[in-house]
Amino acid sequence: MIGKRTAIGIIIAGAMALAGTVSLAEKDPAPQAPAPVTKDAPTSPVTREQIRERINSALDKLVSDKVITQEQKDAVLKAMDKKRQCIGKERDGKPGKKHVSCEYKSVLKGLTEEGVITEEQAEAIRKALKSVFESLKKPDQNR
Fold first, then answer.
1. Is residue 38 part of a domain?
2. How many domains does the chain have?
3. How far is CA 58 from CA 26, 62, 68, 124, 140, in A?
4. Where are the extended beta strands (E) located within the chain?
5. Nearest 5°: CA angle at 83, between 80 and 84?
6. Model pLDDT for residues 84-98, shown as the tens digit of each residue
7. Angle 48-64/119-137 helices, nearest 10 degrees?
8. pTM of the model
């Protein structure tokens, strides 16, 4: 009788151990697709047009301070627009990777290399743009 009880105990212990290893050996769940973007998705409190207006104002201040000329300001804005249109599109115009024909270099570096602005002017423009984008991070100033 004791031999039967021991055998039954061993069988039950083995079955329990086997059930535990089977559960550990299960495959990982299949990866899930990302959640679709809904109209409830958070949006930026500042529009692209508002950012452009702030950049325009910052550059206007540089023009009024005689750091850059109006023509240089226009060239900076034009180069920024050209860069924005270039980034974020594939050859067929759909959103995606950067367009193959786009060069990866700073707008200000390109204008400096072309002789449109000097290094000092580029640095002043960088500081002005940095202050614009830092002001966007402060929630109290955007309300």
1. no
2. 1
3. 60, 7, 11, 10, 19
4. none
5. 85
6. 766 555 555 555 555
7. 140
8. 0.55
